[in-house]
Amino acid sequence: MSEFEDNIIEEDNPVLHLELEDGTVMDCAVVAIFEAGPQTYIALIPVEELDSEEEETALLLYRYVVSPEDEESFDLENIEDDEEYKLVTDTLDEILEESIEDGDSF
User: Which Pfam family name is an example for this entry (predicted)?
Assistant: First the structure.
């Protein structure tokens, strides 16, 4: 499970402050929060890679679990199963393709 600094996503610019296992904080842009099967997931890209000229960037995928006590609070859980990971990536690919067809940008 991942921990967050203040467990928030900034509203104006969707950035999540992700605390890594070593205690460092990585700012990540929220690409999408979406459902795949019975779960909700979140796709993130490290902010520092947004300005990179590299064609490939690190895409971070997690289970997005909203707290039953407080809808403003959430946890991220690692996807550990290859089958679940494939479901999540296939679903995200479909969402991104539909977005491109609709003229939206991420």
Answer: DUF1292
Query: Looking at 37-82, which runs of residues are DSSP E strands?
Result: 39-46, 60-66, 74-77
| Interval 23-35: pLDDT, tens | 999 999 998 999 9
Sequence ranges of the domains in the chain: 3-101
DSSP string, 80-101: --HHHHHHHHHHHHHHHHHHHH
Place of tokens 């509203």: 11
Retrieve residue 63's tokens. Answer: 């289970």
At 69, the amino acid letter reads E
The tokens for 81 are 């199963």
Token pair, residue 26, equals 């990585």
